[in-house]
C-alpha cells in the first residue's frame, strides 16, 4: 500500500506541469515566450506577464546573424517573420562612415562566405583583397542583397547562403513572436508587476530565490521558474539587491536621441540603408536603418562632451530641412553595464534587465537570444558551446527535451555558475569588440 501511494506521488510529480513566468512583454519577453513555449510547452505552462500600457524600447531595430537560427528554433520562418510580419529588410553589413577620417568608410559584414584568413596569410594576399572577397561586403558596396524566390526554396544551397541578418520593426517582431507563442498554447496576462518577493534569507540558504510576484492590482502570481524581461526596470536584480558592473572607461556613450522618419526617395535610400549606416558625429555617431516603410534613425552620444539640447540640434542639422521633428524624438539614457549574476536559484534575466552595450553593431537582440539558448542548452545537455559565432548559435540544440520534468528542474548551483560566467564573458568580449571601433578611429 505504501509502495503504491509513493509510486502515484512520483508519477504525479512527473506529469504535473511546472510554471514558467516571463516578466515583461518587450522584444525580450516576446522572444522568451515563443522560444520557451516551443521548446518546453509540452512539459511546462508558460505565461507572460505583459501590460499593454508599458511602451516597448525597440529603437535600433537591427539584428545580427543569429536571428535566422533563433526563429527557426522557435518554429518560425525567418524571411516571413522579419521581411513580412516585421516589415523589414535584409541586412548584410554595418557601414561605419567617416570614423577613421572624413570621406572614409569601412564595413563589418555578416557571415563567413569569404577567402579563408589563413590563405591570405599563407599566400601573402593584400588585406584589401581579403575584405573585398566577403560576399556580404561585396553586396553591401553594390547596395544589393540576395533574396531567394519561393519557387527555388527547395534548391540545395550552401548553409552559408543565409548568413545575413535583418532590419526589423521591433514592435511588429514582438507582436509576431507573441502570436506564435499563443498559437502554441502559451498564456498572456495583461498586468503590471509591482514587486518581486524574494524568500526571506533565514528560510533559504540561496538568498535569491523568488517566492512570488505581486501585481499592481494586488494579484499574487506564483511560479516555479521566472524569466526577467522587465527591461531597464530590472525587477529581479533590484529585488536581490544586485549592482551592475559598469564599463564606462571602455564605452563613454550614455545617451541616444531616437526617432523615425519617412523616405524622401525610397528607391535610392532603401537599398543603401538596408546596410546600416553609422555616421560619425561630434560626440558619437548617428544611425540610419532602412525598413520597408520608413527609416529608423538616432544619435548615440556621450553627455561628457555634449549637452542633450546641443546633441538634438546637431542631430536635426545633420539631415537638413525639417525631417527631424522635436516632438517625435525620444531621449534614451543608458550605461554600458551588465550584471555579473544573470541567473539565480529559480530565475534568469534576459534582454535589458541583464545588461546593455551601446547600440553600435546591434548586439541587444543577440544577447537576449544568447541567454535563452544558453539556458536551454544547460538544462538539456548540462554544458555550454565553445567559441560560438553569432551566426551559428543554436546549432547545438537538438530534439525535444525529455518528458521527465524533474530532469528539467535540475537547475543547480553548478549550472547557475556556468551560466553566469558564460553570459558575462560574452558581454565583456562584446564590449571589447565595440570599444575597438573607437580605439582606432581618428575622427
Characterization of this structure:
The structure is a single chain. By secondary structure, this protein is α+β, with helices and mostly antiparallel strands. It is built from 14 helices and 21 strands. The strands form five sheets. The chain has a seven-stranded mixed β-sheet with strand order 5-4-14-15-16-13-17. Strands 7-2-1-11-20-19 form a six-stranded mixed β-sheet. The longest helix has 27 residues. The radius of gyration is 23 Å and the shape is globular. The termini are far apart.
- How many H/I helices? 14
Average pLDDT works out at: 86
- List how many beta strands DSSP finds: 21
Describe the biggest sheet? 7 strands, mixed
* Range of helix content: 25-40%
Distance between the termini: 81 Å
- Rounded to an integer in angstroms, the radius of gyration calculated over CA atoms is 23 Å
Strand order of the largest sheet: 5-4-14-15-16-13-17
Secondary-structure class: alpha+beta
Low-pLDDT segments: 4-13, 387-396
Proportion of β residues? 15-25%
Shape, please?
Answer: globular
Amino acid at each position: 500500500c505504501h509502495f503504491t501511494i509513493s509510486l502515484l506521488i512520483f508519477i504525479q510529480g512527473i506529469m504535473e506541469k511546472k510554471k514558467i513566468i516571463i516578466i515583461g512583454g518587450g522584444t525580450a519577453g516576446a522572444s522568451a515566450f515563443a522560444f520557451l513555449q516551443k521548446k518546453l510547452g509540452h512539459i511546462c505552462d508558460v505565461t507572460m506577464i505583459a501590460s499593454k500600457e508599458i511602451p516597448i524600447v525597440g529603437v535600433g531595430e537591427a539584428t545580427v546573424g543569429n536571428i535566422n537560427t533563433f526563429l527557426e528554433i522557435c518554429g518560425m520562418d525567418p524571411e516571413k517573420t522579419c521581411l513580412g510580419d516585421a516589415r523589414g529588410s535584409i541586412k548584410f553589413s554595418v557601414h561605419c562612415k567617416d570614423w577613421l577620417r572624413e570621406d572614409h568608410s569601412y564595413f563589418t559584414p555578416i557571415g563567413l562566405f569569404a577567402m579563408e584568413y589563413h590563405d591570405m596569410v599563407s599566400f601573402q594576399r593584400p588585406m584589401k583583397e581579403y575584405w573585398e572577397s566577403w560576399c556580404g561586403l561585396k553586396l553591401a558596396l553594390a547596395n544589393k542583397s540576395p533574396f531567394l524566390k519561393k519557387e527555388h526554396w527547395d534548391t540545395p544551397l550552401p548553409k552559408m547562403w543565409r548568413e545575413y541578418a535583418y532590419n526589423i520593426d521591433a514592435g511588429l517582431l514582438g507582436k509576431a513572436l507573441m502570436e506564435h507563442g499563443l498559437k502554441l498554447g502559451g498564456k498572456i496576462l495583461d498586468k503590471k508587476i509591482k514587486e518581486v518577493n524574494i524568500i526571506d534569507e533565514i528560510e533559504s540558504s540561496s538568498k535569491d530565490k523568488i517566492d512570488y510576484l505581486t501585481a499592481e492590482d494586488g494579484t499574487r502570481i506564483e511560479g516555479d521558474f521566472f524569466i526577467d524581461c522587465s527591461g531597464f526596470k530590472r525587477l529581479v536584480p533590484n529585488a536581490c539587491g544586485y549592482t551592475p558592473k559598469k564599463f564606462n572607461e571602455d564605452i563613454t556613450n550614455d545617451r541616444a536621441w531616437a526617432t523615425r522618419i519617412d523616405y524622401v526617395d525610397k528607391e535610392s535610400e532603401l537599398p543603401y540603408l538596408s546596410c546600416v549606416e553609422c555616421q560619425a558625429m561630434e560626440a558619437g555617431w548617428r544611425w540610419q536603418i532602412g525598413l520597408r516603410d520608413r527609416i529608423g534613425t538616432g544619435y548615440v552620444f556621450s553627455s561628457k562632451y555634449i549637452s542633450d539640447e546641443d546633441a538634438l540640434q546637431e542631430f536635426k542639422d545633420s539631415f537638413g530641412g525639417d525631417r527631424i521633428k522635436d516632438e517625435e524624438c525620444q531621449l534614451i539614457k543608458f550605461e554600458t553595464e551588465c550584471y555579473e549574476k544573470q541567473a539565480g536559484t529559480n530565475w534568469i534575466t534576459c534582454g535589458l534587465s541583464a545588461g546593455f552595450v551601446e547600440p553600435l553593431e546591434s548586439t541587444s537582440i543577440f544577447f537576449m537570444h544568447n541567454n535563452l539558448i544558453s539556458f536551454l542548452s544547460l538544462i538539456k545537455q548540462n554544458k555550454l558551446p565553445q567559441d560560438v559565432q553569432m551566426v551559428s548559435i543554436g546549432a547545438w540544440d537538438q530534439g525535444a527535451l525529455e518528458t521527465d520534468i524533474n530532469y528539467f528542474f535540475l537547475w543547480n548551483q553548478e549550472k547557475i555558475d556556468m551560466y553566469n560566467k558564460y553570459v558575462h564573458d560574452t558581454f565583456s568580449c562584446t564590449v571589447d569588440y565595440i570599444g575597438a571601433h573607437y580605439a582606432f578611429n581618428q575622427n
